[in-house]
User: Fold this.
Amino acid sequence: MGALFNALVTASLKNRVFVLVVAAVLVGYGGWTMTRLPVDVFPDLNRPTVTLMTEAEGMAPEEVEQLVTYPLETAMNGMPGVTRVRSVSGVGLSIIYVEFDFGTELLTNRQQVAERLASVREQMPAGVVPQMGPITSIMGEIMLVAMSGDAPPMLIRELADFTVRPRLLSIPGVAQVIPIGGEVRTYQVTPDIAQMTRLDVSLDDVERAIKQFGANSGGGFVDQNRAEYVIRNIGRTTRVEDLRSLVVATKAGQSIILSQVATVGFAPRFKRGDAGANGKTAVILSIQKQPGADTVKLSRTIEAALGNLSRTLPEGVRADTVLFRQANFIEASIGNVEDALRDAVIVVAASIATAMLWPKSKLAVPVPTVVETMAPSVASDHLMRLPPTSMPRKVRGAGLTRPGPRSLTTTPCGHP
Assistant:
């Protein structure tokens, strides 16, 4: 091991330029990689998970569990790589979490779940369609943005659904944008039972006519003058006046329209919750990121997009009020680390500079000449115990001695 180390050091000293160039390249590459390293609050320690969400309006939790959740769970069990299947059944809602083993490819897992869903859709109740959730993680919610203003809540919700949400979903790295609160615009038809009875119109007639409202249909084509003309029935509309003029029945050769037997207008959809910001009614946008996306960089891109959108919204409506920003925690943590490193570098540099620039002290150690006074009897008795190499060169009667090469220092014994 020592020979290998010596050979490595010798080779490095002989090729100093090459070693310096390689070190500079590695340092440059490390710095370039560090600037592009994604930073997150916590590492993604979750198993690859596919979420299934199914809305079943009007069903109790027991019915949702029996008719929706149980068939889906049975279909998901047994797939390759599945480790656990969890579910939650609520009022009109079923959520199923299909967890796969570590190391499996998430896109492959979603393909397997899609194939199983295709085979189980026939077992679902009428109008119930299971949907796969977006590719996200438990720490995927990176921002909460509030939309508020002087406009009606119904208009703000429409701007959130059809203007802001599609723009944010077009940003690379955004997995899902969920609007919360506001008022969802719906058509409200309130039948007039007395008028329906007088005109001999049933609820089935009204319901059948409403289901066919606002849809286009094709009528084939016709040949005229060596050309084919496509026949289309344009019926798609969003105007409430068109709904009021909808024909629901024909009696005695006369058409009965919807406004004659019902009150028609716009109304907000029934809400089970609401949202607000700064004490006012608002629409909250929950923005979730895709796994592996850089939270700090993505947050800045979203804020820039929201700033541009705010200038195109109606006067008095803003969509740039950030209520929660996960990147703030990351930036604060990075700032604390930078402050600690800066302080440590200053302290170490100051310590090294102090040690190197401090004046060196010179310590002079003179060779002492030991002169002792002893009584003759004590001195002779003590000298008899000394080794030959430490015998004094000359001993006088008064006890004055000059030590030899290895002198032994003794103290007076207190004799007179």
The longest strand covers residues 82-90. Confidence is low (pLDDT under 50) at residues 370-384, 389-416. The chain has six domains: 2-35, 47-133, 140-184+269-325, 186-268, 326-361, 364-416.
